[in-house]
């Protein structure tokens, strides 16, 4: 998007917030892990962060968090750290590595989620239809795994 605050349309304040967020994120990871300097690259937080980015420009992901927190750098960094913890604790990387084998085939066949077409950047579009969910049809964990898998792949 070319809207103000997106990667191709950053004002000076947005650029400064982006730079400050990167510095603050590195400091927060260092504090969380007791690692410093080049050693934070080996932390689970950095690993999760780069897996979350996928093929996107790393600044695009950081800008999403900044926009969602109305350009509050501290709130954005806090949310990023919490997200990385959730990804680690939930086992997102392991789920994606196992692929569809980790998902109930019966749950997949409900067509609650599917991929159709591509966005303007050529990325697949994941469609998730919560209205197709029937409470109690499958264990809650099955639905969670399916949703996380589709969003992450």
TrEMBL record:
<dbReference type="Pfam" id="PF03765">
    <property type="entry name" value="CRAL_TRIO_N"/>
</dbReference>
<dbReference type="InterPro" id="IPR011074">
    <property type="entry name" value="CRAL/TRIO_N_dom"/>
</dbReference>
<protein>
    <recommendedName>
        <fullName>CRAL/TRIO N-terminal domain-containing protein</fullName>
    </recommendedName>
</protein>
<feature type="domain" description="CRAL/TRIO N-terminal">
    <location>
        <begin position="58"/>
        <end position="83"/>
    </location>
</feature>
<dbReference type="InterPro" id="IPR052432">
    <property type="entry name" value="PITP/CRAL-TRIO"/>
</dbReference>
<dbReference type="InterPro" id="IPR036273">
    <property type="entry name" value="CRAL/TRIO_N_dom_sf"/>
</dbReference>
<dbReference type="InterPro" id="IPR036865">
    <property type="entry name" value="CRAL-TRIO_dom_sf"/>
</dbReference>
């Amino acid at each position: 998007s070319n809207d103000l605050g997106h990667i191709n349309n950053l004002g000076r304040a947005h650029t400064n917030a982006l730079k400050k967020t990167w510095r603050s994120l590195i400091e927060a990871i260092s504090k969380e892990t007791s690692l410093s300097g080049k050693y934070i690259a080996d932390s689970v937080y950095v690993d999760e962060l780069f897996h979350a980015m996928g093929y996107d420009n790393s600044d695009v992901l950081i800008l999403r968090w900044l926009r969602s927190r109305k350009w509050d750098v501290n709130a954005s960094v806090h949310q990023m750290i919490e997200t990385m913890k959730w990804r680690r604790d939930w086992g997102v990387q392991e789920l994606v590595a196992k692929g569809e084998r980790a998902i109930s085939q019966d749950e997949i066949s409900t067509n609650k989620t599917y991929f159709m077409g591509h966005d303007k950047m050529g990325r697949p579009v994941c469609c998730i239809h919560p209205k197709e969910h029937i409470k109690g049809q499958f264990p809650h964990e099955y639905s969670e795994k399916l949703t996380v898998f589709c969003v992450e792949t």
